[in-house]
Amino acid sequence: MALLGKQNQRSKSPFLLLLTLPLLAFSFLFFYHFSSPNPYQFPNPNSSSNPQTSFVASLDHFLLTHPTPYSNGATGSEKKEEELDKLMFNSQTQRLYGDPHYPVAFPIKVYVYDMPNKFTYDLLSLFAKSYKDTSNLTSNGSPVHRLIEQHSIDYWLWADLIAPESERLLKTVVRVDKQEEADLFYIPFFTTISFFLMEKQQCKALYREALKWITDQPAWKRSEGRDHILPVHHPWSFKSVRRFVKKAIWLLPDMDSTGNWYKPGQVFLEKDLILPYVPNVELCDAKCLAATELKRTTLIFFRGRLKRNAGGKIRAKLVSELSGAEGVVIEEGTAGEGGKLAAQNGMRKSIFCLSPAGDTPSSARLFDAIVSGCIPVIVSDELELPFEGILDYRKIAVFVSSGDAVQPGWLLNFLKSITRSQISEMRRNLAKYSRHFVYSNPAQPLGPEDLVWRMMAGKLVNIKLHTRRSQRLVKESRSICSCDCRRANETIPTPIL
């Protein structure tokens, strides 16, 4: 009744109605103008709803939105080693008694060094200004800039760590401003870009400068680098000075226990972390996998360099064994744009993708196969895999020893014995696992950046143990286990149950 009375009263006031209509119209136009998308406002390609997975595109946007700051290399802490050690003891003691999950609780606290621009922004700009120079090739014909992209894990991790906390999605790691609060220290030096794009002697000089800057830091001296993370993902990067930073946590493509790329005692699983290469092909998502399922008529596919050094010599033997067989496609090719498209098309038409060792036990081709929904056939006896403490690669790949793979007819007969239902299950697992190998900005939960910190959590207690042990040991008082001698990894055929 009250509502009806108000309506009757309003209907008897035509003047009030005429006055209200323009106000309503103005309010509508005001709301529409400010709530509708601005046609002149470009969307952020790195927004959380549309993560950027292209290194080149993400880097271009990063440099556009992050004007190069002036950096004199100040660490944010001019404290001496002894003072910093005391502060870190106090901070860790508070966490020990205040957090029932310390020292393995998330988020991991990381201090990112503010290194001089010549080690960071200047190198990123150097790549951005020169990556379109497609004539720049390595001695074996691979595009230099594509190799840099494949090993660009240092960019993806750093870009996430320095982003404003409001724009980050990962809950496993947080950047801290005070060194005494840190679990780990991140060194943002782009070792791969400098190796490939700088003149040799100039690069070595930059390495020596970086080494001095890093080892002069009080936090480094306190732990001898044991709690410092150093990206050296290309096997040639930082090579001339590695021996001085061998106690740091290295981010690597593999262990290479053959000794061709890393000296004995420099790398081992207890200390270092394996990270996947950045895939060279586009992700074949669930929709793509469904669309390509019936088109996968090739039994096994390989495209790449057929002649490699060291452990990669297995490729020539496999080519000799498999060439000309029914259902086999083997092509010579490199990682340029034409090669990328050819590899992508070939993988999406194949059930299995051959993944033999390259110059090192690992190969970027493994991760291209995974994101393409093509079941990898791994022929690399010394291979160590990324995030294997979290992921079970037996669910998505077939492991074959080199000795078996080169036996006449053995590999093809083995692959043909795998049933359709087993293949379907592995392909479903590939669809689930592929997200773990796609780098992006912003970094996504369960993406490779996230798994890095989940794996790091498992190392923290051991890092603290060896740091404190080294601080209290009397020199020459006892033999210290260096874990240098290790038995080589052994590969046996994956049992298909």
Automatic annotation (TrEMBL):
Main localization, broad class: Golgi
Membrane-protein topology: Single-pass type II membrane protein
Domain Exostosin GT47 positions: 108-413
Localisation per UniProt entry: Golgi apparatus membrane
GO cellular component labels: Golgi membrane
GO molecular function, one term: glycosyltransferase activity
Pfam family, one: Exostosin_GT47
InterPro entries the record matches: Exostosin, Exostosin_GT47
Keywords of this entry: Glycosyltransferase, Golgi apparatus, Signal-anchor, Transferase, Transmembrane
Similarity comment text for this entry: Belongs to the glycosyltransferase 47 family.
Entry protein name: Exostosin GT47 domain-containing protein
Lineage: Eukaryota, Viridiplantae, Streptophyta, Embryophyta, Tracheophyta
